[in-house]
Amino acid sequence: MTDRALVVVRAGALTTVQDRGRPGYAHLGVPRSGALDPLAAALVNRLVGNPPDAAVLETTLNGCVLRPRSTVTVAIGGAPCPVTVGGRPAAWGAPVVVPAGELLDVGAATAGVRAYVAVGGGVAVEPVLGSRATDLLSGLGPAPLTDGTVLPLGTPAGPPARVDGAPQPCPPAELVLRVTPGPRDDWFTARAVRDLTTRAYRVSAASNRIGLRTEGPALERARTGELPSEGMVLGAVQVPPDGRPVVFLADHPTTGGYPVIAVVRAADLPAAAQALPGTPVRFVPVRRR
């Protein structure tokens, strides 16, 4: 039994292992997966001296509690949340030393949805297709964490950053998503195409790592029937039969038969990872590059 390990005392609502994911395997039907807020994951890795592709933990809403078997350096970022070590308040957004056997409590998010926990050396579960990421759709990678799970840790690659705190973006009060029209906008009426970028939507509580679902006006089809399944990309705005747009996130399927009315710019998707249910959503049209 190695002492380079974390014991999960409380797994929380949904805590998974994530890294940069598995891009490049869509032709095999494998989703990309990876951290929904990759900027936050990269920052906490940098704070503890890890390379940017080291695996971290992604929590959802109510955090998690961990106990290291040896002294480790950790950093928590993404959704702001209270952090304690051994019952004492500790820094969020900065490197923190957790002695062996002490409890690290990553509390419930005070804003946003997903917090990221980096540990010096990274989470060293066995990689699948070059990634340690949990993929909820395909089942690849480690299962979502449960109480009592033991996670092996790698060897620290470098010293932690010398900072008191790193600036991070606030979770969005309004989620603004820039969209390029198409490729199947011709499957919708002119009014529906206009409604997408002029009407008000909100984040649905049914959102998950696969897609950000919205509540708002249904988009009217100009064509009946269904498409043959075709390739889907990250950020695709697919419209299912209820007419409410769904923005595909990291665990999205690689193919689908519902028409895609637009595609969200990749740079806007990290904010989608932190948008709480009820957050206003605005789709803003941009020209194709």
From TrEMBL:
UniProt KW Membrane keyword: no
Q: Which SMART domains is this protein grouped with?
A: AHS2 (SM00797)
Q: Does this entry carry the keyword ATP-binding?
A: yes
What residues does the Carboxyltransferase domain cover?
Answer: 27-289
Q: Which UniProt keywords apply?
A: ATP-binding, Hydrolase, Nucleotide-binding
Give the matching InterPro entries: CT_A_B (IPR003778), Cyclophilin-like_dom_sf (IPR029000), PxpC (IPR052708)
Q: Which GO terms describe its molecular function?
A: ATP binding; hydrolase activity
Record Pfam families: CT_A_B (PF02626)
Q: Which NCBIfam families match?
A: urea_amlyse_rel
Could you tell me what this protein is called?
Answer: Allophanate hydrolase
What is the species listed in this Swiss-Prot or TrEMBL entry?
Streptomyces corchorusii (Streptomyces chibaensis)
Q: What is the lineage of its organism?
A: Bacteria, Bacillati, Actinomycetota, Actinomycetes, Kitasatosporales
